Amino acid sequence: MKPYLDFLGANPDRELWLDLKNLNESNCIQAETTLTGLLAQRDVNKDQLIIESRDWKALHHFTQEGYYTSCYLDIPHIDELSDAERLHRLDSIQQIAHSGAVSALSFPASYYAFLRNLDFSVDLLTWEHRRWAWQLPFFSRSRAILKDGRVKVVLVKEKGHYHK
Fold first, then answer.
1. Please, what sign has the CA dihedral across residues 124, 129, 132, 137?
2. How many CA atoms, within 13 angstroms, populate the side-chain half-sphere of residue 13?
3. Would you tell me the crossing angle of helices 28-41 and 2-10 to the nearest 10 degrees?
4. What is the pLDDT of residue 160?
């Protein structure tokens, strides 16, 4: 992670989406303290980061400390949910969105149709990994995502140094 932070320190106009896989309520304070220390050592601003985790309650501490946070929504077999399961899942997502614990919700673009009609008070972050940026206007889902003012980030495929 240090090379990424060195890059951000040297390029204050760049940002990093950081996925904290094992974040939970018992380690969130230590994780935030450690990250804040690393940022200070490398002259990186908190505003350059998106902190993402599945544990929205653990993210609350990061949000309180001034980080931009996003709860990753994992909805396995979304197309196979019963109506009751869909309503339950949507209610849970609304609870997260209105909790004040996170700044955003993040999800694969394939979830957009499921989520688009909800009234969110947070930003939406998504990704279209199988598409290049120039391709987005050619697909109806991508066009809808790009027109949605709640969507603040759309990650897309880009050929880079580590691209295979």
1. negative
2. 0
3. 50
4. 60
